[in-house]
């Protein structure tokens, strides 16, 4: 693709190289550490599910038990594998026994290590096979049913009640939605466990639970069959349980996950060491499961100015890309985020938005790109809001964005009403159809405002990346370079759950999912 | 010019002619699209007390529900002269206005510490006020220019909070109390004020509490400067804090 913005390929390469170096620096730390949620994920992937009599998830019970016994550095897989060899029981039976106090994993007689490794690998392969099957099932359904054209229309449901969400989601699908995202309940990201079972009460959203995933998956498959296209399901793989939610999503065939390497650090004040370790395993799982990840650069622009700080979005996209590659996630599954968030009062603001969107398209040609609608400058004037969303839709079709998070005219007022969604879809479909080939027909003036804007933002982004490469990622975040948010290395939530891997530590899934057949 | 013609004791909606009462409605009914749906919408608007409803658009929402746009004439009127709106003590400011107020009137960064104190582990409220992301589209104090906001999180002991307040040179303390069983919040909130008084810090600080069961009245009674209940956002708290700082000459 020739550059419509006249971007310098050498400069793009320089940015990519710097980002690779930044990711590699941190990867050493990631490879040497694990966290409590990483261990709980392993426990889940070994087939443990359910809760105890006080609603505590069994994966938490098992990992807490190992931790309190002083064995966490060897990893949950080792202790469960050791007990499997010693007792012949399944991981689920072992978890139950730990829960009712009839088994202490740390007191089970040590079995020969090769046997432990063999039994754990066999068990892990069962789950890996199931996830692989889900991936094939998705591919088959898409090839048989078909899918909507890009940009995919992405709509949210957020009633708090999974059954009400189903009604709204099915309506949205009939109106044209390609992706349904179930917004999570406020503050779930700060829970160091994943709630269990179907839920009917939430605050500003619905809890992400495996049962809720299953209920919505089934509903979307049914409606998708009726309308003749595959409908993707999206949830939030972020917070203190990133990899656990990735595992649940892989098991229940979710298709899209919000999954940013830095979001939790910046916007949820989760400890940076914790998040960096967690994001890696979550992305390994998402990558293997064929799940598209949405990164969260758009959030920077809700805190920082979209005109002044545009280069930080590009820099972060470069970094997110490299972290994702490290986790074996192909470019086709990287929906790098950005947003249409400039003040509508800016003269020629739309031209700058176009420059930014086109630039993301050209720098990451294979990535689907997740484009977020205006939120910051949306008001109670829903009529103007509807036009702001129309401008956003125009920029999207013009620059071939992959995932269009539809803007709602009632943004900033309330969670979408049924007809808000219908109007948003009508708006997008009208513009996408009416301007379908505008990107092929219209070129940008050489050295004009749009080209110059894009070139400048790229230049600033690469400058920032070079600087981060020198300073390291931790220091950059400590200084508040992203989104204007400062976070300290040892601050935030969840650091207590991070530990160095011991000598005998094992996580069979990294090897199977990163190295295995896709 | 036209304003002189308006009878303020008898105000009606204006469409294109004074007192025409024109109102626009849009809503969804859980009935399938069709002539019966349009008639249902028309009758509903009549039942609202409107006159001459005109269903200008009906749209099939796909699951047996229909969306309508309706115009109608409102026969009711309001006596504008009789309206009195009670004003809050401090002026309500938006985030931007607070930022501007800090820049011009406080002229330095305002340090605000937030915490769930005592045994309380429910940070939803304090997070909504403090954290970057905020709540319901109302950004938290961390996102305010000119505010140094520190969210100390849950289960912070009062002694620890006071020590932090001294260390960070805090201007304001925000205390969140969600759990109110056996009036634990009252004891806890009182204890903090006693500590601050013992350290002779009370007068130098703006001290505010919040939570679903906290009222302004209760807060004042316990020795706080203000109390905020559910439905308050960061800008409400910030407006109060910065104006109080100027008023009490703490800038």
Keywords:
heterodimer; A: 518 residues; alpha/beta; 9-stranded parallel beta sheet; 20 helices; B: 251 residues; 3-stranded antiparallel beta sheet; 7 helices; 31% helix
Characterize this entry briefly.
The complex is a heterodimer of chains A (518) and B (251). Chain A has 518 residues and is α/β, with parallel strands linked by helices. Chain A has helices at residues 9-32, 36-45, 58-68, 76-87, 91-99, 113-145, 162-175, 210-227, 242-251, 263-267, 272-289, 300-303, 310-326, 349-363, 382-399, 418-434, 438-441, 449-471, 473-478, 508-515; strands at residues 33-35, 152-157, 179-182, 232-236, 256-258, 292-294, 334-335, 337-339, 370-372, 403-405, 498-500.
Question: Would you kindly provide a written description of the structure presented here, covering whatever features stand out?
Answer:
Chain A is an alpha/beta fold and 518 residues long. Chain A has helices at 9-32, 36-45, 58-68, 76-87, 91-99, 113-145, 162-175, 210-227, 242-251, 263-267, 272-289, 300-303, 310-326, 349-363, 382-399, 418-434, 438-441, 449-471, 473-478, 508-515, and strands spanning 33-35, 152-157, 179-182, 232-236, 256-258, 292-294, 334-335, 337-339, 370-372, 403-405, 498-500. In chain A, the strands form 2 sheets. In chain A, strands 7-6-5-4-3-2-10-9-8 form a 9-stranded parallel sheet. Chain A has a two-stranded antiparallel sheet with strand order 1-11. In chain A, helix 1 (9-32) runs parallel beside helix 18, helix 7 (162-175) runs parallel beside helix 8 (210-227) and helix 9 (242-251) packs parallel to helix 11. In chain B, strand 6, helix 5 (184-198) and strand 7 (206-210) form a beta-alpha-beta unit. Chain B starts with 21 loop residues before the first strand and ends with a helix. The model of chain B has no long low-confidence stretch (mean pLDDT 90).
């Amino acid at each position: 693709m020739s550059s419509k913005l006249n971007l310098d390929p050498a400069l793009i390469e320089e940015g990519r190289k710097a980002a690779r170096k930044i990711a590699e620096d941190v990867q050493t730390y990631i490879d040497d550490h694990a966290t409590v949620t990483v261990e709980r994920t392993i426990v889940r992937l070994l087939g443990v599910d359910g809760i105890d009599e006080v609603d505590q998830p069994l994966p938490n019970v098992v990992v807490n038990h190992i931790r309190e016994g002083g064995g966490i550095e060897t990893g949950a897989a080792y202790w469960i594998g050791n007990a499997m060899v010693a007792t012949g029981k399944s991981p689920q039976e072992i978890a139950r026994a730990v829960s009712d106090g009839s088994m202490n994993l740390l007191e089970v007689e040590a079995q020969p290590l090769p046997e432990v490794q063999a039994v754990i690998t066999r068990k892990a392969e069962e789950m890996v096979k199931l996830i692989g099957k889900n991936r094939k099932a998705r591919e088959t359904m898409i090839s048989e049913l078909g899918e909507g054209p890009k940009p995919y229309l992405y709509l949210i449901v957020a009633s708090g009640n999974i059954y009400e969400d189903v009604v709204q989601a099915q309506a949205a699908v009939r109106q044209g939605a390609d992706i349904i995202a179930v917004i999570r309940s406020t503050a779930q990201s700060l829970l160091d466990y994943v709630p269990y079972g179907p839920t009917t009460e939430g605050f500003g959203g619905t809890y992400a639970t495996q049962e809720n995933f299953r209920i919505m998956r089934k509903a979307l498959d049914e409606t998708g069959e009726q309308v003749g296209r595959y409908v993707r399901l999206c949830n939030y793989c972020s917070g203190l349980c990133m990899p656990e939610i990735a595992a649940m999503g892989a098991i229940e065939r979710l298709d899209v996950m919000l999954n940013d390497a830095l979001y939790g650090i910046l916007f949820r004040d989760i400890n940076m060491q914790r998040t960096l370790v967690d994001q890696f395993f979550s992305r390994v799982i998402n990558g293997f499961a064929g799940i598209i990840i949405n990164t969260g650069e758009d959030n920077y622009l809700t805190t920082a100015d979209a005109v002044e700080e545009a280069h930080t979005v590009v820099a972060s996209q470069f970094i997110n890309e490299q972290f994702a590659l490290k986790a074996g996630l192909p470019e086709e599954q990287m929906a790098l985020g950005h947003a249409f968030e400039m003040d509508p009062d800016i003269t020629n603001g739309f031209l700058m938005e176009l420059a930014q969107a086109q630039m993301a398209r050209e720098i990451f040609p294979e990535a689907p790109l997740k484009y977020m609608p205006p939120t910051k400058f949306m008001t109670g004037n829903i009529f103007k809001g509807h036009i702001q969303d129309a401008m956003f839709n125009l920029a999207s079709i013009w620059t071939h964005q992959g995932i269009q998070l539809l803007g709602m005219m009632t943004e900033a007022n309330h969670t979408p009403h049924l007809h808000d969604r219908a109007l948003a879809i009508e708006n997008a479909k009208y513009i996408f159809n009416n301007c379908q080939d505008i990107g092929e027909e219209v070129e940008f003036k050489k050295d004009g405002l749009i080209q110059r804007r894009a070139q400048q933002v790229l230049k600033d982004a690469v400058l920032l990346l070079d600087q981060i490469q020198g300073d390291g990622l931790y220091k950059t975040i400590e200084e508040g370079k992203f989104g204007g948010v400062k976070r300290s290395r040892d601050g935030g939530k969840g650091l207590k759950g991070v530990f160095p891997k011991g000598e005998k530590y094992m996580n069979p899934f990294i090897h199977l999912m990163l190295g295995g057949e896709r | 010019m036209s304003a002189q013609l308006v009878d303020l004791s008898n105000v009606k909606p204006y469409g294109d002619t004074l007192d025409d009462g024109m109102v626009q409605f849009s809503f969804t009914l859980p009935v399938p699209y069709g002539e019966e749906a349009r008639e249902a919408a028309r009758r509903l608007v009549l039942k609202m007390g409107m006159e001459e409803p005109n269903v200008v658009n009906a749209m099939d929402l796909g699951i047996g529900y229909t969306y309508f746009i309706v115009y109608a004439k409102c026969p009711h009127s309001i006596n504008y002269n009789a309206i009195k709106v009670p004003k809050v003590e401090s002026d309500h400011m938006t985030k931007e206005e607070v930022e501007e107020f800090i820049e011009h009137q406080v002229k330095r960064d305002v340090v605000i510490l937030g915490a769930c104190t005592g045994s309380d582990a429910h940070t939803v409220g304090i997070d909504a006020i403090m954290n970057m992301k905020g709540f319901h589209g109302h950004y938290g104090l961390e996102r305010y220019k000119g505010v140094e906001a520190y969210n100390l999180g849950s289960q912070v002991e009062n002694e620890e909070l006071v020590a932090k307040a001294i260390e960070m040179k805090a201007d304001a303390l925000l205390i969140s109390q969600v759990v109110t069983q056996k009036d634990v919040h009252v004891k806890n909130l009182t204890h903090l004020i006693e500590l601050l008084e013992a350290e002779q810090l009370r007068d130098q600080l703006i001290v505010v509490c919040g939570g679903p069961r906290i009222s302004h009245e209760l807060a004042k009674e316990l020795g706080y400067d203000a109390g905020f209940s559910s439905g308050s956002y960061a800008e409400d708290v910030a407006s109060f804090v910065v104006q109080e700082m100027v008023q009490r000459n703490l800038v």
